[in-house]
Queue: 3 jobs
Job 1
Amino acid sequence: MTTDPKVTTLLKILIGVAWIDGQIQPEEREYLHRIAEEKGLENEPELQPLLHEFRPVKAAECYSWVNEYLGNQPTSEACQQLIEAISGLIYSDGTVDTSEAKLLTDLQLLDTSHPPSESVKNSVLTAIRNIYQRWVATLNA
């Protein structure tokens, strides 16, 4: 089976985001394995050492994969899709680390449809607030 390199890179980014705070949380681990299975990547040789935590991923490596994934001139749609994918991972453990929030902010700044401004920071904070609200809602359900 031939896999789409873009999908493989996306999963590498998600693994990197899970490591960005220094360790993978159990909920993040479960989420990553579920995504790998859904995408048919659970046996992808390139992903095995990352998916099974044989080696940690440094933030610089994660950012490198983000740049590879988005290319030199990322579209607004590509940035938003990546933000949504990362938000799903971040939501999985119910906490947003400052390094995760920084990555989301950096992605918002890459979005060509939004010039850098306070509104970008506010939209990231709103997204983080929404994640927390959904998490609290699931706890109370």
Job 2
Amino acid sequence: MTNATSRIRTLTRLTVTNRVSAVYLALVGGAMAVAAAEPLFATGPDASLIWVWPALFTFPAFGFVAWLGEAGWGGEAPTWFLIGGIVLSALVQSLALGAVWQTLRGRRGDRARLTTAN
């Protein structure tokens, strides 16, 4: 296995395949599914406000995406940009959560090894 393949596997493992990241991505995915289905059930003027929840679940990373949308389109960013930004923000934050989770698990494992060694 090459070094690049090893790095890609590590990033994938940290982003998707640990418990914390999987729960987070399921939460964001569920919020996006509910937001996408909302127009089928509600036709009021506030129906589009449901997209605030996926954006909030991906904050603070989505704050950068919103800033880019404001700078590029003056507050009228296309839907594809905002949805893509939510997905990208969720993946970035999932990677961060996976890294923190691995670090905490490593420390707990180190403590357990130290107590059994004494």
Job 3
Amino acid sequence: MMYSKVFTAGTVLVFVMSLPVGLKAQESETSDLKDMSDPLAVYTRAAVGVTNRGINIKLGIESKDGDADKALMNVLEIKGIGGDVIGWDGDYLRSNSVDSLRYRYFSLNKKNGRGSQMDVTYDRNQESGVVSYSFLQGLPKWKNFNLYPLLGAGLAYANNALQDDGSFQSGLSVPGALAVVGMYGKYTVNETIWLNYNPFWSVGLLGSDNFMDHGFEGHSSVLTHEVAVSYKLSSRSNVRYFANWSQHTNFDDGVHRIEYNYQF
């Protein structure tokens, strides 16, 4: 069974990696293509990733509101598709259906490099998620480094949430509010390779005792880490390796994925 899962994941990965060959021959480079290595770049894109918990699909659509200095984008991520067949994380509860969703509405002021985003996550296994709003600011480039600090706040929500007295509240509830402080970081190696490090610290602001003490991976707060290594295939496409873990989750037990991105 293990060999069949590895073979299936490898087959999908080979297919994903082979996509650029056909696309590159047909693509016509245009002057309005955005820099895909820029975390604040707004453009219409699609991505597919093979992870240790299944297939991820990401769709981003650029939109306009009439202001030439403003760029808007809606991004939807669907995670964990076919996880029981393709995933190889033995300690994670996998199924072949979607295990989590993420939606972001991003707005960028192109004049000053300031952005804002509404971020909504939902974990189907835990029947819980977070709705947050945050601000980002692109700082002046220093040598090969670009930094984009972020500050935000949000609300946690859950279905049948555990209460302080050990009971469960029937239906949807809001256990507490939280703050998020973090940064998107980019290091440019050369014209085709770049690295990203994105740390985020989340902590409870107010709420139930259970949320304040155990609302973040069983703790009162959590520092998460995301590292990405990216290779530019063309002005329209790239391949990226991501690793996500935290202070409470070891690197080996985190989420690992290889993702192909294409800009329309």
